[in-house]
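The data are quoted verbatim for reference:
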Amino acid sequence: MRNTRLLAVAALTGAGLLTAAWAGAAGAGRAGGAGETALASSVSSESAAASTSSAAGSATSSATASAGCGAGWGSMPKTGEGAGGRSLTDVRTGRHDCYDRLVLDVRPGASANSPGYRVRYVDRLHQDGSGRPVEVGGGAVLEVVADAPAYDPGTFEPTYPGRGGEPLPGVDLKGYKTFRDARFGASYEGTTQLGLGVRARLPFRVLALGDRLVVDVAHTWAAPR
């Protein structure tokens, strides 16, 4: 029986569920029933403390994430002044804990300023120039217009292979929590128009980062509208 108890103590100590002090006390064979009762009480208390600490950590992490998920962004139209004439070179997307992200990359130029932009929810996307409706999947549609043409203004050679009404090249939205569809609208009079289909009318923000224009759409409403 003593050997069995020592083996159990060693296993618990190795697993981090028993302090070294209690292991030593048990190995020395402290007074039968009282020692074993104290030993069991220590294991129970330490396990409970570990569980409580883990739960508290998870709750804190969850609360921190929720606090940064779209709080204060809102869903009203957003515009920004910036440099024009720098060509669009790529459009890509990414998934994050709180939001889905759309990134427009523009060609570096003499100006370090980001392109101007206009981002808003629309009932339906209409192609710039022609006015033709563009079907965009999802519960709501964000129209993204950037002052960055999909061609070189000097040569008119394409710099981004988007085609009107078609899905954005190379963009795969499988597994995204908010994004549902991404379509090319048009490149018209020095601008590029995109249609972003999202799950619902959710808060969003726009970040102008020099040679990148970023649109983040939150997964949920984290704060009152």
Summary: The longest strand covers residues 179-188. The two ends are 66 Å apart (CA to CA). Residues 1-67 have pLDDT under 50 and may be disordered. Helices lie at 2-14, 20-27, 32-67.
